[in-house]
Amino acid sequence: MSVIKAALLGFGTVGEGVYTAIHSHQQQLNELLGVRVEIVAVLIRDKNKKRDIESNILVTTDFEEILNIRDLDVVFEAIVGEEPGYTYLKQAIDKGIHVITANKVMFAKYGQELIHKAKQRNVKLAFEATTAGGVPIIRTIQRLLQVNRITKVQGILNGTSNFILTKMRENKLSFEAALHLAQQKGYAEADPTNDISGKDAFCKLMILSQLVFGEQPCWSEVKIEGITSISQQQIEEKEHQGQRYKHIAEIYKEGKLIKASVKPIIVDSNHPLYWIEGVENAIALEASLVGNITLQGPGAGKMPTASAMIEDFAEIVQHQQLQEKIPALQM
């Protein structure tokens, strides 16, 4: 049986999730792809930190060591922030290595450039995990875009802020108490600024904008409003009226202009995102032929995000296998 060699860039929550998923689903991958998936290297920042990684795997702080691995097929990138992820992915693509990323901050800014570079080098770049964790929105949009014209996207793209708003309503908690609960459960970081300010959802929205419209709005013109100013009293008042606050990222075209925002919106039970609770993510699409579609699922966390990256990986391998068969079929 042939072997696919993979490297992990980052071994935090997502990187460890990919490592676990490949080991736990090795049989399914073998049956589906007819290959054995072998993690041959892991890039880390701190060599002194204890990690549960098999001893035969290269663990390094030097990306050059990973690039020099013979016949490396794919890298899973799960690094936080623009750098060094952007530089690493450029180098991997230049060496003809397939890339799967979960780095939303980096991809919102450099995604189009990396996609173009990957096409030039005839390698695949997959990014399902950048936008809504385990919700297959990227793949769905790519399929719909073959014929449908998507006119509007609305989404709850951050599970932390959605969890906070849900607990403020259900448990009658203050914002501070709900945030503390989110941190206790591991849904919010020690510094939750990007989640509660809307910056995390904004990066995901820009990725969706590029995918849906082929361009992004001017970032400085996008209204970004967080959830910190919403009081428990306001939430309770709207609840009595059959309404709920939802932190919604929205993008649509008005003429030739792209309009985008991330802000709290009051919705009633007729809205497709009204029922999305807790750490769930959901995206509502309006399209020219199919009409309205809503996808819902776990938006973050170790295994949902790893699931998105593994599904991307399976698709890349299947595409490569198909390409290898075509010349034989034409003979």
UniProtKB/TrEMBL annotation:
Its EC number is 1.1.1.3. It is an enzyme of class 1 (oxidoreductase). It catalyses: L-homoserine + NADP(+) = L-aspartate 4-semialdehyde + NADPH + H(+). Residues 10-128 form the Aspartate/homoserine dehydrogenase NAD-binding domain. The keyword NADP applies. NADPH binds at K104. InterPro entries: Asp/hSer_DH_NAD-bd, HDH_cat, HDH_CS, HDH_short, NAD(P)-bd_dom_sf. Residues 136-312 form the Homoserine dehydrogenase catalytic domain. L-homoserine binds at E189. One of its GO terms (biological process) is threonine biosynthetic process. GO terms for molecular function: homoserine dehydrogenase activity; NADP binding. Keywords: Amino-acid biosynthesis, Methionine biosynthesis, NADP, Oxidoreductase, Sodium, Threonine biosynthesis. Signal peptide: none annotated. It comes from the Bacteria. The active site is at K204. Belongs to the homoserine dehydrogenase family. This is Homoserine dehydrogenase. It comes from Heyndrickxia oleronia. The lineage of its organism: Bacteria, Bacillati, Bacillota, Bacilli, Bacillales.
